[in-house]
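Sample A.
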Amino acid sequence: MENFVFHNPTRIIFGKDSQQQVGRELKGYRKVLLHYGTGSIKRCGLYDQVVNSLQEAGIEWVELGGAKPNPLLSLVYEGIRLCRENGVELVLAVGGGSTIDSAKAIALGACYTGDVWDFYTEKAKPAAALPVGVILTIAAAGSESSDSSVLTREEGLLKRPCSSSLVFPKFAILNPELTYTLPSYQTACGIADICAHILERYFTRSPNVDLTDRLCEASLKTLIAFAPRVMAAPADYEARAEIMWTGAIAHNNLLGTGRTADWGSHMIEHEMSGIYDVAHGAGLAVVFPAWMKYVYREDIQRFVQYAVRVWGVDYSFGEPERIALEGIARTKEFFSSIGLPVSLKEMNISGDRLEEMAQKATKDGSLGNFKKLDQADVLNILKLAS
C-alpha cells in the first residue's frame, strides 16, 4: 500500500425530500448563482422547490441555465461574468455531473484574472474559488463530492480535466427520488460512468491493497445487482439509493487510497465525446472493455481476481487467460444488457477520425498507469472498440 492523504470536506445530505434543506445549507450567503441544465428541473418541479427554499431563507440569486452533457467553456465564461457583475458568493449547481463540473469551472474562473481554461491545460494552478453547493439529479459522475471538473472547449473540440481541492462542494444534497424521471438511457450511462470510476482505480499495479480491492469489488457488485432493478422499475427507491450512494463513493477518492489509479480509458473517451458529443458513460462502455482486452496480459492475475470476485467466474472455468477474458466479456455483456452501446459502430462513429483521437489523447505524453499508452496503443484500443 502506498502512502496517502485522504480528505473529503463535502457535507452529504442524503434522503427523501432533502432538497428542501438547501436554504438552510446556504445560511450566511447573501447571493448565489443558480446553475442548471436545459429545463428538466422546471418541468419536474424541482426548480420551484429550490427557489422557494431560497426565498424562505432570504437568499438572492441570479440564474444561468443551459448546461449540457460535456459542459462547454462558452457557458462557463457567461457564468463567470454573472458572478462578477452580481457579487455572487456561492455557485449552486442543480443537476448532474455536467452542471456540477460547469459550476466548479465558474467558481474557479470568478476568482481568477486570467482565462479559466488555463487550469484545464495546466498553464496555471488555482489559488482561489467561490464555494460550490450541489443538488444532484443523476447518479453518474460523482462530481458532487469530488475535487475534479471536466470541461470542453469548442475551439479544437478539446475536453480536458482539472482537479483542485478548492472545488470540493461545501455540501451535496442527494435525494434518489429526483432521479425517478430520468430516461432509461441516461440512467444506464450514469451506471457505466460509476463503474468506470471504480475500474480506473481497481486496475492498479500497486501491491498489497486488499482492503480497497474489496471496497471496489463490493461497489461494482452493488451496481451489478441493482442496475437491472432500476432499469425495470425507475421509481424503485431502494435501488436508486444504492446506485446514488455508490456513485458518490466511487469518485470521492476513498477507493483510490493507497494505490495508483489508471485513468487511461477516461482520457481516450474524452477525445471521443469532445469530437462527437456522445454521452460520457456510453463512451466509457465502449472504451473500457476494449482497453481491458488490450492490457490484460500486463497483470493477468488481477484480471483473474476481477473475473472471480466481481463476476463469479469459477477457477474451474479454465486457464487464467480464459478466466480473465470471461470477466472482460461479462463486463461488456453487462453494459449491453442495460441498453448501452459496446462498440463505436453502435454509436455511429466511423473509423475516419481514430488517428486524430489517438493523436490528441497523447499530445502531452502517454496515458494511464496500468500500462503506459502511446499514440499507437490508443489507436489499437480504438480499433478494438470499433
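Sample B.
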Amino acid sequence: MCELCGIPSRSHLSRRGLLGAFSAALAVAAAGPAPSGTITGDESLRRMMDGNARYVANKTTMRDFAAGRASRVTTHRPIAALLSCADARVGPEFVFDQGPGDLFVVRVAGNILEDEGLASLEYAAQFLGAPLIFVLGHSGCGAVDAAIKVVKDSTVVLPGHLPGLIDQVKPAVLAAQKTQPKDLLAASIIENVRQTVQHVTAAKPMLSDMIAGGKVKVAGGVYDIASGKVNLV
C-alpha cells in the first residue's frame, strides 16, 4: 500500500479497487490544502536542531513505536519535509531524533531536486501543511565526489543513468571550484545544498508563492557522518 496516495500495491490491484483508490486520492486533492498546524517553520527548525543535539550527545528520545500507530492511519501532519541524499548512513529520523509521522522525506543521491521530488515537496507543503522544507546534504557525498571527478577529467564515462544525475551536481562543483577551497569536496557539498535551497525557493508556481508569503520556511544543512552534527548552511 502506498502511504502517500493510498493506492494498493500491484499484487492487490483490481479494476474496482484501482478506481476506488484514485477516487479517494482525487477527493483529498479537491478538498484543498491541509489546515495550518500550530507549529511554524522557525519552530519546526528549532525542534529538529534540538533533536540533532540530542542525537550528537547520544541522548535520543526513547520511543514506543507502536504508540499512536492507530491514529497515524487517519492523521498525516509532518512537522517538516526533507530532501535528503539516499546514502544509507544518513537516516533523517535518527539524525533529528524525530518519531514516526514527523518527517516527510524525499531521498535521492546527491539530494538533487528532480521534478518528482519537487512534486513531493509541493504535496507536503500544500496538502499536509508541512511548514518547513529542509535540504540535507552530508559529508563524503559520493554523488558530489563523482561530479568532481567528471569536472576534473572530462574523459570519465559513468554507466547507466548516472551521467544525468551528475550533470545536476556539476554546477555546484564548478561554483565551489572558483573559490579555490582547500577541500573541494566539502565546499562542493555545501554549495550543492545552497543551490538546491535556491531552486526550492524559486520553484514555481506553488512553493515560491508559499515561501514568499511566509507559509513555508526553507533551510539547508550538511550532516557530518563522523560527529552526527548537522551544520546549517
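B remarks: DSSP finds eight helices and five strands in the chain. The longest strand covers residues 132-138.
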